[in-house]
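Appendix C. Worked example: Acrylyl-CoA reductase (NADPH)
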Amino acid sequence: MATFKAIRIDKAEKGTVAALTQFDDAELMDGDVTVAVEWSTLNYKDGLALTGKAPVVRRFPMIAGIDFAGTVIESSHPDWKAGDKVVCNGWGMGETHLGAYAEKARVKGDWLVRLPESLSARDAMAIGTAGYTAMLSVLALEKHGLTPKDGPVVVTGAAGGVGSVAIALLSKLGYQVIASTGRASEEAYLRQLGAAEIIDRNELSGPAKPLAKERWAGGIDSVGSTTLANLLSMTKYRGAIAACGLAAGMDLPSSVAPFILRGVCLYGIDSVMCPLPERKRAWERLATDLDPAKLAEITQEISLDQVIDAGAKVLAGQVRGRIVVKIT
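Step 2, the predicted output written as C-alpha cells:
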C-alpha cells in the first residue's frame, strides 16, 4: 500500500501527540481533488494543534496544517485538472479534515483557489493563512470606507505573522501605521516593514475605559481580550477595528460606549469558512499589493521535520514574521 510523509496527531493518555511518520493513502478522506503538496506554512492555530495547547483537532488521526500550495495530481472536479497550481487554506483542514503537513492532500475542489500567476507556491505560503487573514482585514476596513486621510491605523501583535503582513500592506496603501508589540527589539524590523510609530503592548493591556482618548481611525487586531477592548475605546469617531485573532484570550471586557457614542464598528474576520469569491479577491490583492521584497524579509524556511519544534516557538512568541515549510 502506498504511503507518504506526514505529521500525524493522535490521542495520547494525556492530551495528544504529534509525530512525523508515514501515512497510508487508504486513510485519506473523501474529496474530488488530490494535490501534491509542495509548500505549507506555520500559523498560530497550527502551533495550538501541534502542541495540544487547545482543542483544535476534532478527529483522530489528524494530519496537521491548515494551508498548502501545490499541484493537482488527480481531479474529478470540473474546475480542476492535473497540473493546475492551487492554494488551499481553512475549511477545517488540520481540524476536522486531514491537513497540509504531508506530501499529499485530498480535498474538495470547491475549497481551492488558483495560484495567482505572479506568485510561486512558496510565495503563497510565505503569505499563508496569516497573510490572507491580514488581507481580509484590510478589505473589511476598505469596505467600511476607511482611507489614509482618515488618520493612523493600529496593528497589534505587530511582529507576528498577521501583524507583519498587515503592516506591509497598509503602509504600501499609504496608511500611517502604529505597530503595537511586546518585543522592543523588533522596532527596526517593524519600521522596515513600514510602521511609522511603535508602541508597547502594555499600553493596551490594562483594563479598558468605556471611552479613552481618540488615537486611531482604524486597526487590525490579532490579540483579542483587553487589547481589543482598549483599541475600541481609543478608536476615532466612526472608525473601525477588524478583529482576527485571540492570542490573549477569547473574552472582550468592553462596553457599548464606543459603538453607540462614537459609532465605531467592529468587524469579525473569519478566514476558515470565508466564501470563495472573497478568498479569490483577497489572493488577487495579495498578488498586487504586497511588496515582494518585504515578503522575503519577513519569511524564514524550515523543513517538515522541524515543524513540531517550531510550533511550540510560535506559541511562545519566539517567531518573527512568517515561516514557510518545504514539504517536497
